[in-house]
Write a structure and sequence with these properties.
Structural class: alpha+beta
Radius of gyration: 37 Å
Shape: elongated
Helix content: 55-70%
Number of strands: 9
Strand content: 5-15%
Largest sheet: 9 strands, antiparallel
């Protein structure tokens, strides 16, 4: 979102924190070790086989674990090297492994653990715990393939503990065996209530790494039930709902987070705005954005005020829309937006406000592409405010430049203005002017005089005038299968990104057994506001290509749209979209927020485009 934005990089996603074995062992008190030894004695006492080793360890009153733990690594190595008793080998191996871990010598620790377990002298529960420690060391060494045989060797798959399953899942992530990650974590979904908070976080991270997002949602949802006030978890879970296109759930959760006052970043409010907009609730989105601007929760920028204008306009709150657009202009000198505001004022018959907007805008020198439109609007404002001479001069200016010649001539005829003299046709004069005000007259004088209401002048431009006043064309778009790639970029980078990604997309399509079967499309799931764009570059295709990484098959159902074809400068595309949206709403169409743009011909190498704009509507 600003758009929704769904790339989805989840802000603040849980980072897996591996257990620090050395730290855990260093904190173990000597008293704790003694208690563990006493427990071990009790376990051994229950088995006849282990009883013979008990006396060897404890009949000597001078030997205890406190003294054993205090032995140096050299002493333990010497002790292990000369030991022949299986119990002594197991005990020395374990103690030596702990010492190596404390010094982070994990390769030597792994050898010591292996020696201790190979002695086969430990009771089953103790040996199982030792395997867990050994598995942690193997993870540190990235010996992922050794972990599953180690933990599964003496344990039935169904009896694996949650700790063991987490270790097996971590090893599977290291091996990129994501199906194994899912297999290990799935049984834990029925044990959610018994899992610790730390386990839930680890399980969420592991399932996310395996792209098992519904599973990640389950783990995070359980955690959030216990800790509903944690902003990071709310943000992550909302992001996952967006990623899996569960927009209702995302909106419900993120709206609740807002009511709990968990928002702290500008993006938090903007995400809520995007979610309401995505769900076709522009009025609610506008109120959220307006409150955030008023309270200083987001940057007071021209772009945010323009986004608010678009939302109010979609909600048909035209007075609020005009006010927001005016605020955007206070913060920028955007001529195109100023002309749009002028048109909105004139639609509301606020003639003085439209003249004031133009007066302020035309204090700067205008690019030539804006001069015709500005003078046409200026002439209308002057006419409505009973300033006929100024209106005539503004309309004459508009007839001398491309863009609004037809309408300007019609207005001159309507107000019965005197034709322009040769001097007036050679020099632009008035309020809204370009850098160069000189006009080169054509050699032939056979054309009708500017301002003439003759039938020939009207006939020359009848077709163009009819096109400008025609209602939008409605079209039923057939269900289509596209092969596409999602892109998040900015307006400035869009052209470069399209060129780069399109080549890779076509290459992937052909390599996987498909072929292009139509013109390039840009698919947009929501209204594109602000500077960031979230689009899908896509081609209709034939054949049976495979989904491959970022290149995916996109199934689009049959839809209805109003369309507009445009051939002209690429810089004018945003204005064309704005006019299409405004006209569609004026004609009473219900917008879904989705749109497409089809490239009708190849104009690469120039700054021109030949496209069809398709605005999806509810039918």
């Amino acid at each position: 979102m600003a758009g929704l934005s769904t790339k989805l990089t989840l802000p603040g996603m849980i980072r897996f924190q591996p257990i620090n074995i050395a730290k855990a062992l260093s904190k173990r008190s000597l008293r704790g070790l003694l208690l563990l030894t006493l427990l071990l004695v009790l376990l051994i006492a229950n088995t006849t086989e282990a009883r013979q080793y008990k006396s060897k360890l404890f009949e000597d009153s001078n030997q205890d674990l406190s003294s054993a733990e205090s032995l140096s690594i050299n002493q333990l190595e010497a002790q292990l090297a000369t030991a022949s008793d299986p119990w002594q080998i197991a005990l020395s191996g374990q103690q030596l492994a702990h010492q190596y871990v404390l010094k982070q010598e994990f390769a030597k620790a792994a050898e010591a653990y292996q020696t201790a377990l190979a002695a086969n002298a430990l009771a089953a529960p103790v040996a199982r715990q030792l395997r867990l420690e050994y598995a942690q060391v193997l993870l540190q060494l990235k010996r992922f393939a050794q972990i599953k045989p180690l933990l599964s060797s003496v344990t039935n798959e169904a009896e694996l503990s949650s700790q063991e399953r987490v270790l097996l899942a971590r090893a599977a992530v290291g091996l990129e065996q994501f199906h194994e990650v899912v297999a290990q974590l799935s049984p834990l979904l029925v044990q959610l209530a018994s899992l610790s908070d730390d386990e839930l976080k680890q399980l969420a991270q592991l399932s996310y790494a395996a792209k098992a997002w519904p599973m990640t949602i389950d783990f995070l949802s359980e955690y959030l039930q216990r800790h509903p006030q944690e902003p990071a978890i709310n943000r992550q879970l909302t992001g996952l709902y967006i990623l899996t296109e569960q927009y209702d759930a995302a909106l419900q959760l993120w709206s609740l987070a807002n009511s709990q006052k968990l928002f702290s970043q500008e993006q938090d409010w903007l995400l809520l705005v995007d979610l309401y907009k995505r769900q076709n609730m522009p009025d609610k989105a506008a109120r959220i954005l307006n409150d955030a601007l008023q309270q200083g929760n987001i940057l007071d920028s021209a772009e945010h005020w323009y986004q608010l204008f678009q939302l109010w306009y979609q909600a048909r709150e035209l007075a609020s829309a005009r006010g927001s657009l005016a605020q955007s202009l206070v913060r920028s000198n955007d001529v195109q937006r100023a002309l749009l505001l002028t048109e909105l004022y004139q639609q509301a018959e606020q003639w003085q406000a439209s003249l004031d907007t133009l007066t302020q805008t035309c204090e700067q020198i205008l690019e030539e592409r804006y001069v015709g439109k500005a003078n046409l609007l200026l002439g209308i404002a002057y006419h409505k405010l009973a300033q006929p001479e100024k209106a005539r001069r503004a309309f004459i200016n508009a007839t001398l430049l491309s863009g609004e010649k037809v309408k300007a001539r019609e207005w001159l005829a309507f107000i019965a203005a005197a034709p322009a003299s040769r001097e007036e046709s050679q020099q632009l004069q008035g309020l809204c002017l370009p850098a160069d005000t000189q006009i080169a007259l054509p050699d032939s004088s056979s054309k009708p005089a500017v301002g003439s209401s003759s039938k020939s002048a009207v006939a020359d431009t009848a077709e163009n005038t009819a096109q400008q006043s025609m209602p939008l064309t409605k079209k039923r778009l057939a269900a289509t299968r596209f092969y596409g790639t999602k892109v998040s970029t900015t307006k400035a980078e869009l052209q470069t990104v399209i060129k780069k990604r399109t080549f890779g997309l076509i290459k992937a399509l052909m390599r996987s057994g498909g072929s292009v079967n139509g013109n390039m499309h840009l698919l947009m799931q929501q209204m594109q506001t602000g500077n960031e764009l979230n689009i899908t570059i896509a081609f209709p295709f034939s054949g049976a290509p495979r989904n491959s990484g970022i290149h995916r098959i996109v199934n689009v159902p049959s839809q209805h749209a109003v369309i507009k074809q445009y051939q002209g400068p690429a810089a004018e595309l945003e204005a064309q979209w704005t006019m299409l949206v405004m006209q569609a709403m004026q004609e009473g169409h219900q917008l879904t927020g989705q749109s497409r743009m089809i490239f009708l011909s190849d104009t690469s190498g120039s700054d021109m485009v030949d496209v069809e704009l398709q605005l999806i509507i509810a039918e």
